[in-house]
Amino acid sequence: MRPVIDSPKTPNKHSREAVNVEIKVLGTGCAKCEQLYETTRSALEQAGMDPGQVVKVVDIDEILAHGVMMTPALVIDGEVKSTGKVPNAAQIAAWVGQAAG
């Protein structure tokens, strides 16, 4: 079996790389909003990406500007990926990976 070599496609667990993707969790601070924020950070961490790039948006005007009527919501590169629920970490990592290209 060949060893896995660290590359941008296979990040090292110990290094956290920032991806050029805008990630926002929209919500006013309810329990599900906090859960989505933590799940998103965890998904990035598990994928070897920098969890510090997740931005919490609590301003109702900004939330509405995204066309979101139900929170929590996850926005990746300006595209609303989820509203009203907390997707699992694997789904979030897949969306971020697709956006990162």
Widest sheet: strand ordering: 2-1-3-4
> At the first level of CATH, what is the class?
Alpha Beta
Give the low-pLDDT segments.
1-15
Tell me the series of helices and strands, N- to C-terminal: EHEHEEH
Average per-residue pLDDT, rounded, comes to: 85
Number of strand elements: 4
**Percent helix range:** 25-40%
- Termini Cα gap: 28 Å
What form results from the Cα inertia axes?
globular
The name of the CATH superfamily reads Glutaredoxin
Q: What is Rg?
A: 14 Å
CATH topology: Glutaredoxin
Q: How much strand content do the residues show?
A: 15-25%
- Please tell me the total number of domains: 1
Number of helices: 3
Derived structural class: alpha+beta
CATH architecture type: 3-Layer(aba) Sandwich
Biggest sheet statistics? 4 strands, mixed
Structural commentary:
It is a single chain. The protein is α+β, with helices and mostly antiparallel strands and 101 residues long. It has a single domain (23-100), classed as 3-Layer(aba) Sandwich (Glutaredoxin). It has 3 helices and 4 strands. It has helices at 31-46, 60-65, 89-100; strands spanning 23-26, 54-57, 73-76, 79-83. Strands 2-1-3-4 form a 4-stranded mixed beta sheet. Strand 3 and strand 4 (79-83) form a beta hairpin. Helix 1 crosses helix 3 (89-100). It starts with 22 loop residues before the first strand and ends with a helix.
